[in-house]
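Hey L., structure's done. Input below.
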Amino acid sequence: MDQTVLREDMVDGLDHALGGLDESLGVAMRSVPRHVFVEDRPYDDRRGEHAGTAVLAPRTVARLVEALALEDDDTVLVVGAGVGYTAALLADLVGERRVHAVDIARRLVIEARHNLGRAGYEGVLVDQRDGADGLPEYAPFDRVLVEAAAVRPPRALVDQLTPDGRLAMPMGTPDPTLVAVEPDDSADGYAVVEEFGPLALAPLLVEGEQADGVTRNRTEREDREFAEQGYFAPTGWEQEWIDWDERLDGGRGHHRR
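Output:
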């Protein structure tokens, strides 16, 4: 069947499933050729996997983008470039040069750049970064979209928002909720301004946790060191970093580099 027809059917289905799709987003989803980004049944509303990363279902992408409440001239940062499809939709909505994307995995950065170029969105900037650090060279951003879950928005991402900016992400554990936050003067630096219901995504990775990175992360390293010392405590992506180098040498001055 013709890809255009399949794309139309996909958007019609999303419009029905979501109780009405934002008009401008619907136009963008009818325009962006998802088959360039996703080879296997690209217009099915299902989650997939490619090159070690989750390929979000179209319905999930639509929910994330709608949570941003985009305006025409917004500059946007996408944390988690993936295969590049979300960045392409955003480029269709606000313009290529207003969209920036980062991913912690080098091979996904290459993949996203390739796909965006093939789809006609080569103006989107895609860089390899630890997503929690954002992209300060191009800040501030009107909108930040985090395609990963975390207990709270990384402070660097909130700090890279404009004063009236908005960040959307699944927040909380163990059952994340898709929220929109805006910067404020509180101790946390942000306030939740809207909630959009449950949305479970993979956790936001830090340097060392990506599949093509060196093992130096909170889940593997700390679990091993706990086992060696006979300690038992919760570890994982939802916990703050604990300086086990200092803990294990009794604070004698050996620090992690």
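The radius of gyration is 19 Å. Confidence is low (pLDDT under 50) at residues 213-222, 230-244, 252-257.

-- N.
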